[in-house]
Write a structure and sequence with these properties.
The complex is a heterodimer of chains A (251) and B (322).
Chain A (H helix, E strand, L loop, with lengths): L1 H4 L2 E12 L2 E12 L3 E6 L5 H8 L7 E6 L2 E3 L4 H6 L2 E4 L11 H5 L6 E2 L3 E2 L1 H14 L16 H15 L3 E5 L7 H16 L3 E5 L3 H7 L2 E6 L2 E7 L5 H9 L7
Parallel strand pairs in A: 3-10, 3-11, 6-9, 9-10
Antiparallel strand pairs in A: 1-2, 1-4, 4-5, 7-8, 11-12
Chain B lengths: L1 H9 L1 H22 L6 H26 L7 H17 L4 H25 L4 H20 L4 E2 L3 H8 L1 E2 L2 E2 H19 L1 H18 L4 H27 L1 E2 L7 H11 L11 H20 L5 H29 L1
Antiparallel strand pairs in B: 1-4, 2-3
Classes of the chains: A alpha/beta (251), B mainly alpha (322).
The complex binds adenosine-5'-diphosphate and magnesium ion.
Adenosine-5'-diphosphate binds next to strand 2 and helix 2 of chain A.
Chain lengths: 251, 322
């Protein structure tokens, strides 16, 4: 059982990405295991979002490779990444503001009746169940997403990723705009996902969150993963030192 | 309070209710101004004339809802009509000739769609180019003079009746119903609105956005071609200058009907109601012996006002979401 848990679901090897003159990723290596929560931490601009966008197929890496369940990919696209079981909560949320909550949660995977008609009623019922599971107070289920608060919008994005499911769930600062109660619900949900055997990547600035949930922490600095540590081996201040580059952890 | 007011103003039913009120007021005013207005035949006339505008506006409604625009519809109307005319003159049976003409129009839509979705060309300029190309074809092929005289089976499409109802009205009605269902109840409609709202979000959800965008331009061109078919059949003449500037009417009707010029929101019912408002305005001007081009002026004004309103609303939303 222990052996099975240590299967890497995904391995990133020497991935680079530049935007014009900005080198956002400068040879990133990363391993994500099934049944484990990996936290990625780093200062703003360290390249965390760019990295996970290459994993979800939104961005094409300039070089390097991504190995998923033993198969090597030079690049992914969103469709392929979803089909391989990678669902993502994007930092910018990727919601359609002028559409309602249910439509956003089911975007791209709408259930249909008679092969042709979107089953809106089912979407609304299931959306309500999901939001309840997330402890989210939604005053009006038919509201346009653009009319919700930042935290509620994040909740919708989380609900969508969970609904899509898959094998690896990526959360890019999922609770940044949430209140205490909402974020507690999302965090306990992320913990459950890890326990259920999903691979999870959690990007967060909150050390409390990171140490509470993750088994491993990968620290990014200036487009590189400079260190990967076990949460049990380090203290939050060690990690902060790694983030700022003030100190290195002896292995 | 301000928020509530904004919400009412943005609600998609608001513009439809407003249009109904405008129709009512216009009807009352016109019936006082002209004794002919409130006659059955005049009402019928408006319905008949408006059917082509409605078909054009519906194609445009899909394109604008998806965040695009199509300026080529008037040229596609003429070009498709001429292809049908040529086909019939060559002795090809009417149904096949009609199909060929519609396919020829849809091909322009395909070109528009591929260039806009694959190469990310600006829709305004791309469709402006095809507006010129299709019109050019129509003029070159006909040596710039209309083609007359078609089989009765074809003329039936333009001036025939089923029971008491003109065929163009029936065609328009069927298209309205199908389009309403397409936009509001099917994945294709959902993706049309999502494309206009946040194309990148739809792409990240794994949807082949370029295919959907291309299909929307093909659909719009198909509507223009059907409008071309009705126009040629009604006049028994395929004029290379047919459909001149109809895109302004269509765009005006669509935005007047509550479809957002920045995409993401669309209303078929609104577009239809707006076509009636514009049609009734046209009719009223004629009854009062005012030159019909005043209606063009009005359409242009509507487009500019809608643009300003959209811009102001976008600024406000940007402020709300930082
Ligand atoms: N689309 C883009 N175009 C240009 N530069 C970008 C783009 N996305 C990210 N960057 C740059 O790449 C670097 C890494 O950004 P990002 O991955 O968002 O960092 P993080 O998520 O760790 O804060 C930053 O310098 C950022 O300005
Ligand atoms: Mg980021």
């Amino acid at each position: 059982m222990e052996e099975e848990k240590k299967q890497p679901f995904l391995q990133v090897k020497n991935v680079t990405k530049r935007f014009g003159s900005v080198e956002a990723l400068r040879g990133v290596d990363l391993t994500v295991y099934t049944g484990e929560i990996l936290a990625i931490v780093g200062d703003n601009g360290a390249g965390k979002t760019t990295l996970i966008k290459t994993l979800s197929g939104v961005l094409r890496p300039d070089s390097g490779e991504i190995m998923i369940e033993g198969k090597i990919y030079k690049e992914l696209n969103p469709r392929l990444a979803l089909d391989l079981g990678i669902s993502t909560v994007y930092q910018d949320l990727s919601l359609v503001n002028c559409r309602d909550i249910a439509t956003n949660i089911f975007l791209g995977r709408e259930p249909v009746r008679h092969k042709f008609f979107v089953d809106k009623r089912r979407m609304v019922v299931e959306a309500q169940e999901f939001l309840q599971q997330l402890d989210m107070d939604i005053p009006e289920i038919h509201a346009e997403v653009g009319q919700l608060s930042g935290g509620q919008r994040q909740g919708v994005a989380v609900a969508r990723a969970i609904r899509f499911g898959g094998k690896l769930l990526i959360f890019d600062e999922p609770t940044a705009a949430m209140g205490v109660q909402e974020s507690a619900a999302v965090l306990s949900l992320i913990r459950q996902l890890g326990q259920k055997g999903y691979a999870v990547i959690l990007i967060s600035h909150n050390m409390y969150e990171v140490f509470e949930l993750a088994q491993h922490i990968s620290v990014m600095r200036q487009g590189k993963v400079v260190s990967t540590v076990s949460t049990s081996d380090v203290t939050p201040s060690d990690v902060v030192a790694l983030i700022t580059g003030a100190g290195e952890i002896p292995n | 309070m301000e928020r509530k007011l904004l919400k009412t103003l943005q609600s998609k039913h608001f513009s439809q209710i407003l249009l109904l009120l405008i129709l009512l007021v216009m009807g009352i005013v016109l019936s006082f101004l002209s004794p002919y207005f409130l006659t059955w035949s005049n009402f019928y006339n408006i319905l008949d004339q408006t059917s082509v505008d409605i078909i054009l506006a519906i194609g445009m409604a899909f394109v604008i809802s998806s965040g695009g625009i199509d300026l080529s519809i008037g040229s596609v109307l003429a070009y498709s009509g001429i292809m049908m005319a040529f086909a019939m003159k060559a002795g090809i049976p009417v149904p096949l000739a009609v199909a060929l003409g519609i396919l020829a129009g849809m091909f322009i839509g395909l070109c528009n769609g591929l260039l806009i979705s694959r190469l990310h060309l600006n829709p305004l300029v791309t469709t402006l180019g095809f507006m010129s190309i299709a019109r050019g074809f129509a003029l070159i092929l006909t040596n710039s003079s209309p083609i007359f005289g078609f089989p009765n089976a074809f003329k039936f499409i333009g001036s025939g009746r089923v029971g008491p109802v003109n065929v163009p009205i029936i065609i328009a009605l069927v298209i309205v119903i199908i389009s309403y269902i397409l936009l509001n109840k099917t994945k294709w409609g959902y993706y049309t609105l999502a494309l206009g709202g946040n194309e990148e979000a739809l792409r990240r959800a794994g949807v082949a956005t370029h295919k959907y965008r291309t299909s929307i331009y093909i659909f719009c061109a198909m509507m223009a071609a059907i409008a071309g078919m009705i126009t040629v059949a009604r006049l028994n003449s395929a004029d290379p200058l047919a459909g001149w500037m109809v895109e302004t009417d269509a765009i005006a009707a669509v935005v007047l009907g509550g479809t957002s010029l920045s995409g993401g929101r669309g209303s078929i019912v609104g577009a239809v109601l707006a076509c009636f408002v514009l049609g009734m305005l046209d009719n009223g001007l004629i009854l009062m012996a005012i030159p019909a081009y005043y209606q063009k002026l009005f359409c242009g004004l509507i487009i500019i006002i809608a643009l300003v309103a959209t811009e102001l609303r976008n600024r406000k939303e940007h402020r709300n979401f930082g």
